[in-house]
TrEMBL record:
It comes from Stappia taiwanensis. The chain crosses the membrane at residues 9-30, 136-157, 169-195, 225-248, 283-306, 328-349. The lineage of its organism: Bacteria, Pseudomonadati, Pseudomonadota, Alphaproteobacteria, Hyphomicrobiales. This is Microcin C ABC transporter permease YejB. It is a multi-pass membrane protein. GO terms for cellular component: plasma membrane.
Amino acid sequence: MGAYILRRLLLIVPTLVGIMAINFVIIQFAPGGPVERVIAQLQGTDVSATARISGGGGDFSGAGASTGADATTSKYRGAQGLDPEFIKDLERQFGFDKPPLERFTSMLWDYARFDFGDSYFRDIAVLDLVLEKMPVSISLGLWMTLISYAISIPLGIRKAVNDGSRFDVWTSAVIVVGYAIPGFLFAVLLIVLFAGGSFLDLFPLRGLTSDNWEQLSWPARILDYFWHLALPLTAMVLSAFATVTLLTKNSFLDEIRKQYVQTARAKGLSERQVLYGHVFRNAMLIVIAGFPGAFISSFFAGSLLIETIFSLDGLGLLGFEAVINRDYAVVFATLYIFSLLGLLVNLISDLTYTWIDPRIDFESREV
């Protein structure tokens, strides 16, 4: 097992380099960039993703203006009329005065030391910015995964035991309908019904806590926290539990039909003893081992619209704003962090298999 873990850890390095290289090349051919965005701000034509983005990367207002005699042809759209030296200063500030290969290798060296630099358009270090937004995404991802598993596993087991019954049929219909409804549309419906829309006004619409959270007692803080999470989690969990429920059901059905289950029943064991003493461990192998990956998946993706609708300032919204506003420092740093975490979680998922079932041996498997 030690050799397998070492091989997997060593493979993380070339995999990370490949991910970063592919995305770096794509960015080189993408239209626009931070220099163009600063130029657009100067020309008054820039439209940010949100009003929260401000010129934290430097004060460019009124800078670089040039007379007609100084105007020059520029590779940047909208740069006509600006001093060429000012454009060169912008390139130096964003690192674009260096060749792409040099920029890429320098970025990898810095990232290997977890030095992610500062945001282009926010006066804050990228790592601090990510840590600032992380509590929202962790709250949404962790609780969504826990709640969906808490619903899916008992429901999937009961559906397997009652396969083909009326309960199995109508719950399957509910699961299919819930899976088919987009989470953001259900979020809008919840707002209309319960958050001051056309009907009730029972839940808040902004943030994870109330303004007076610091003055509340600890029990009141916990209630306030879940009060703010109630609607976003409901919208996200609606479709999240469908896959795990059906996976649990199919895993149990596959195990229930095996010979060892018939042998256990023939020995006089009760159905509960057979189900939880023999079937559960084998059937839940793939479900439980997939928990780390499910958490990371929900942590990274699918929450952008929910965060926007409920005004939750998390990593999903941060990534969207960074891409739209060409804040490449944030884009590449978050890509690196998420890719590294994803690769580590994949390794943890494999190790979880061996923890649940020691018969699994990755040592004899080629990576």
